[in-house]
Amino acid sequence: MKTRSRFVNRRSFLAGASATVLLPSILRAQDGSLKLQCRFDDQIVTYTLFDNPTVRDLVSMLPLELTIEDFSNNEKIAHLPRRLDEGGLAPFSDETPGDLCYFLGWGNLAFFYADYQFRNDLIRLGHIDGPLDPLMHRGTYPLRVALTD
């Protein structure tokens, strides 16, 4: 049985490092944080991103055209074209609706709009700015993910 390593491989390391070096400061909000905008159907959701290797790797892939779909009764998900650097993995106990996470099991984004529980399988990427209502818009839609201007 093949086990997933928690260590950073060379490709993940290089992607995260290059995103850190090449990310222009003009993409940062006035408070220094990065803002991610997700558009699907007639909904727009903005997240303030955290600073960790997983976020930097995600940012290096932007913009992305994905598909967002309902999953369970507390989240939407979107599958990425490749797995992200797992260097942002850190336990947390203050799970909150509105968190944006990376699910290690499937390598997808998880957009939580209701309660959820950390089980050593999520990397928190950011938190929603504004109401949760857009995430409760049911269905499967094309999704555009990009940094805000």
Automatic annotation (TrEMBL):
<dbReference type="InterPro" id="IPR029000">
    <property type="entry name" value="Cyclophilin-like_dom_sf"/>
</dbReference>
<dbReference type="Pfam" id="PF18050">
    <property type="entry name" value="Cyclophil_like2"/>
</dbReference>
<dbReference type="InterPro" id="IPR041183">
    <property type="entry name" value="Cyclophilin-like"/>
</dbReference>
<feature type="domain" description="Cyclophilin-like">
    <location>
        <begin position="39"/>
        <end position="133"/>
    </location>
</feature>
<protein>
    <recommendedName>
        <fullName>Cyclophilin-like domain-containing protein</fullName>
    </recommendedName>
</protein>
